[in-house]
Design brief:
With 252 residues, the chain is α+β, with helices and mostly antiparallel strands. The chain folds into 2 domains: 133 residues, Ribosomal Protein L22, Chain A (Alpha-Beta Complex); 105 residues, 4'-phosphopantetheinyl transferase domain (Ribosomal Protein L22, Chain A), CATH 3.90.470.20. Helices cover 32% and strands 25% of the residues. α2 packs antiparallel against α3. Bound molecules: coenzyme A (COA). The site of coenzyme A has 21 residues, from α3, β4, β5, β7 and α6.
Length: 252
């Protein structure tokens, strides 16, 4: 059963306990609250935001990084702007400071909705996609999916099931590739996942090897009607806490 996405009442003051994992959704829409979130970004992020041409892309970035800084600042007990971030792999934001306790996190956004996932016990990645029509879906699947996944996808009956199956596979693969920090350059087809709607999310094989995939957990997420998401974690997932953060309200 899908966890509920109740409103996040307060920013947590201590990190996820044990094998608990948090996934918070948020709107990435522009609004006056960005006047409060923008100044929380560091110089690098502010410059990056400034280079983004569209207001939508800027709002997506500022909402995500502003929320990340508010959350991490609260957990680390200091000013959000002072949170030091670095990049790992092919650009994954990670904490640059040693906190005594590791904090793993990852951001994703799609068409107005963002996700921020946090854990203390294992590396993770998250991906979200708006369920939408993709005209060249069959050819994208043949190009980027593993042959066994293509067979499974083509075996699904009806447009709705095929569309769901496609986005299940896409979000699960990308969540895994984001957890490793390598990104899609690794090759989506090297990662085999379950994709049948209604079946549990599982990472089946990496480069054909079940043993390499075994430490990984995949979680299927439905953060809002019309969106699909996935969380990949290099460990078992204990309690999964999902909530919606109203950033506009938080910045009032
Ligand atoms: C990471 C990647 C999968 C993101 O894909 P996307 O669907 O465009 O974007 P998403 O919304 O899912 O995720 C974006 C967020 O992921 C995070 N991110 C960036 N690079 C990441 C990486 N290598 N691993 C994990 N997370 C990453 C960032 O927080 C980013 O958001 P922000 O910059 O606004 O904070 C993709 O950009 C990628 O593969 N990058 C690595 C570069 C690479 O390998 N390129 C090869 C091209 S063939």
């Amino acid at each position: 059963m899908q966890p509920a996405w109740a409103p996040l009442q307060n920013l947590p003051g201590s990190p996820p306990a044990g094998d608990e994992v948090w996934v918070f959704s948020f709107s990435t829409a522009p609004g006056p609250h960005l006047d409060g979130l923008g100044p929380l970004l560091d110089d690098y992020e502010s410059q990056r935001a400034g280079r983004l041409r569209s207001a939508r892309a800027r709002a997506e970035f500022v909402n995500g990084r502003g929320f990340l800084r508010l959350l991490l600042g609260g957990l680390l007990g200091h000013d959000p702007r002072g949170v030091r971030l670095a990049t790992a792999g092919n650009g994954k934001p990670v904490l640059a400071e040693t906190t005594g306790l590791p904090l793993f996190f990852n951001i994703a956004h799609s068409h107005g909705m963002g996700l921020l996932a946090v854990a203390s016990h294992a590396e993770l990645g998250v991906d979200i996609e708006r369920l939408r029509d993709v005209t060249d879906r069959a050819s994208l699947a043949r190009r980027y999916f593993h042959p066994s996944e293509v067979i499974c996808l083509e075996g699904l009956t009806g447009e709705a099931q095929q569309r769901l199956g496609f986005f299940h596979a896409w979000t699960r693969k990308e969540a895994f590739l984001k957890a490793t920090a390598v990104g899609i350059g690794f090759g989506l087809d090297r990662v085999e996942v379950t994709l049948e709607p209604g079946h549990p999310a599982r990472l089946l094989r990496i480069d054909g090897c079940e043993q390499t995939a075994a430490p990984w957990t995949l979680e299927h997420l439905e953060p809002g009607e019309g969106w699909l998401a996935a969380l990949a974690l290099r460990a078992p997932c204990g309690k999964l806490v999902t909530a919606h953060a109203d950033l506009a309200k938080m910045m009032e």
